[in-house]
Amino acid sequence: MISAILILILLPFINSSLIRSSKFRPLFSVLYWFLVSDFLLLGWLGQKPVEDPYIDIGFWCTVLYFFNFLILLPLIGILENKLSKA
Questions:
Q1: Is the pLDDT of residue 54 over 90?
Q2: Contact (CB, 8 A) for 27 and 78
Q3: Is residue 8 part of a domain?
């Protein structure tokens, strides 16, 4: 649980895009709505009893949460930097 909060503290250092406004970053807006849906799903799963299907879904949603911040966010920043210079 603490790592989910600490990843938000690292967010300014993880973001590698030169454009800071999400208004001009269409790939980031798709990633944002993916994160919002994942966050809502994790919140809903937190209310469910500890049973087999909810444990598996919660595990994969947690993997997607960290994948979003550690892999997709830096890659989208690098890709958008290359596309904006072209």
A1: yes
A2: no
A3: no
